[in-house]
Amino acid sequence: MLQLTREIKRNHELIWALALKDLQIRYKRSALGFLWSLLNPLLMMVILTIVFSTLMRFSVKDYAVFLLSALLPWTFFSQGLSYAVESIVANAELLKKVAVCRSVFPMAAVLSNLINFLLSLIPLALVLLVLRFPFHLAWVYVPVPLLGLILFTMGCGFFCAAANVFFRDVSHIVQIVLSAWFYFSPVIYSLDLIPKRFRFLFEMNPLAYILNGFRLAIYYGELPSLASAILSVAGGILAMVAGYYVFRRNEDWFVYYI
User: Which helix (H) or strand (E) holds 47?
Assistant: First the structure.
């Protein structure tokens, strides 16, 4: 972790520049540009709200807020990981020509999606205002699960980016895993709806504690238990340490496979 901290400090300007470049390329020649970062979560919210609160009749009051409180952090994780897994391969030509710290590419991929996530809080605030839903004081807790989410996304991103260099199937596998992971995570539902005999399986999901932290603060206006708060950050730290270790162990071989 100390090595990673030094790399971030030494290359922070490059990481920021790469993140902004990624955002510019993503919305290039798009009529709405950065507005898509606001529209995407709103459109997804409308679709899922219609499906689950109207057609399937989930009995959750203000389901739109309930949904967005976990959907937004989930979207950050899924998009951050999707971009990070391709970050080394996508910059192959640059890595072959210039001596640059390789870890900056997964970090920039996650940072660009973190910016998207922060922008997506605007439509969340609009939904709260429209529905006259209260802004709970517990919002001050949001930075805690956000820290855990960033660390967890970075750790998974480092691991998958390294693996994708040697096995290009990894990027496709990640998309399949994310599709299944979405339904395995408490995004469209609450863990209380899961039968007790199966609930332990869902509680093994490290994202469950992180997403629950967001939902408790934003929707319920409550703070999680100390154990849940610790687990949400500890899971992120463990993922970061493991992912970065794998990345550093293999990065010298990247140039021979990209």
Answer: helix 36-49
